[in-house]
Specification:
about 180 residues; alpha+beta; 4-stranded mixed beta sheet; 6 helices; globular
């Protein structure tokens, strides 16, 4: 049987869930004490003793998010007010966004994606970013008793499309504020 190319985006996500959930329900779903993990957290020590937590998603999620990520990056490349590809370009207009990715409501980003691609994609993106379980980096001895967490706000950096989705939504908010100021 020849291999078919992997479905992408929301079609790929739904196809994969339809494929995986029925056997999981039959084999072990009812006996689980935690939900399946979509990845794990990693820690990175930065300057001045700051520790940054980042998401390490499973490869399936990364593959499903790649087409969206690539599209968003191509849009960011065209924006003269964005510094993703040219940090010096918009320098005189830049304002600090300290902890922006930690505090920016991801539901707003999901809404922006819904406006562009439809409710299914926006909702699925939001759920992938905020409702999936991550295993914490500390050792617990047993995977069944591993501490599992979820993002409740902000962006899980490490996911494809997380940063460009946040950045495009930030641009949208700035453009809306400028429009309202002129009105």
């Amino acid at each position: 049987m020849p291999l078919k190319p992997m479905k992408e985006g929301l079609d790929g996500f739904n196809w994969l869930m339809d494929l995986l959930i029925p056997p999981a329900q039959q084999l072990w779903w009812d006996h689980m004490t935690t939900r399946p993990e979509a990845g794990r957290f990693g820690l990175k020590l930065e300057g001045a003793g700051k520790v940054r937590t980042f998401a390490i998603p499973n490869p399936i999620f990364q593959r499903l998010l790649k087409p969206l990520h690539d599209w968003e990056m191509s849009v960011l490349r065209t924006l003269k007010t964005d510094g993703t590809f040219n940090q010096l370009g918009p320098l005189r207009r830049l304002r600090g966004k300290k902890a922006a990715t930690d505090m920016f409501p991801s539901v707003l980003t999901g809404s922006m994606l819904s406006g562009i691609f439809g409710d299914d994609l926006g909702r699925t993106w939001y759920l992938m970013m905020n409702q999936v379980a991550f295993r914490s980096p500390e050792k617990t001895g047993s995977p069944v008793r591993a501490r599992v967490s979820r993002f409740t706000r902000g962006q899980p950096l490490g996911y494809l499309s997380s940063w460009p989705s946040f950045t495009l939504t930030h641009h949208m908010v700035v453009w809306l504020a400028a429009y309202l100021k002129r009105s």
